[in-house]
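Following up on my earlier thread - several people asked me to post the actual chain instead of describing it. Fair enough. Here it is, all 362 residues.
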Amino acid sequence: MKKLLILALSAMILIGCTKKKEVKLMNVNDFNTEVDGKKVSLYTLKNGFLTIQVTNYGGRVVSLWMPDRNGSFENIVLGYDNIDSYINNKGERYLGAVVGRCANRIGNGSFTLDGKKYELYKNDGDNTLHGGEFGVDRVVWDVQSVTDNAIVLHVLLPDGLDGFPGNLDITMTYTLTPENEFRVDYLATTDASTVCNLSHHSFFNLKGEGNGTILDHEMMINGKLITVIDKNLIPTGNFIPVKGTPMDFMQEKPIGRDIKAYHPQMENGGGYDFNWVLNKPIGKIGLAASVREPESGRIMEVLTDQLGMQFYSGNFFDVKYLAFALETQQFPDAINQPNFPSVVLRPGEEYHHTCIYRFSIK
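Reply from S.P.:
Thanks for posting it. Predicted structure:
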């Protein structure tokens, strides 16, 4: 009898240790509020493999659940469990948000367009980061439609917001596809010449939120060059090859392998915080990066039609390297760099941008 009891207890312990973790949705009521008289809510999209929750405050991805090779689900993005934490956030502002109207940095918080100088809101020392004081992440987006696997969001950024010219009309669609992709599509138009460069800023940890650092994630970046930055993380207008440097991810390697290796550019960024020039046809959707977490078997691929991608390794978190961001984009500070492709959008033109995060297990 005693032997049978021990065997039963051992079986219970084993079952408890191997119990699969299921999707745990955030409470919709914790996201119901109003900001500037506009309703904020939480929306859930599913495709059977992925479950994503989105709030229209800043178009944020609040959670993204996927299974591991054993069928146990984890939320693989960083986020808060209530809307107040996003609105009154004193930590990482951009968790899960869309960023713009000009993603990344604009040097000295100013630019000249068609002979006129524009002074922007400076929120990154002497520079403007991800659009300034409000950008698109601190405004409430209108929800145009919602289905089981897609949501269409719209916002009109008024002329002069954060110092930028032109009324910028943006439609953004989040879709969970049958191919287990989280797809982001942007469309924007303007009534006056302006700057437009939008991006998505989820922070990923394929182990699951709160389950350690991302240093052992295996990453490949499909880029042979980076745009050189100065000590303020502003591009100089030059490029350097990544081959033979800590920034070389042409072959898959652990994120942490070279993260503390000496290189002048690594000193400027305090880790990885660079724009890679993607090795793909211009304007065509192609592979930008892939990331694999060996223990769980989770894999994420990033595809885009953009020229560049920012890889940020969470250098400025209170606890470093808890998550990474892969932000497809045009080049940083392009409005002030004459040898970078233009980010100017003019009346009658359309801005298009597709970013795809594709998930699988191996």
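Residues 23-361 form a domain with the Beta-galactosidase; Chain A, domain 5 fold (CATH 2.70.98.10). That should answer part of your original question.
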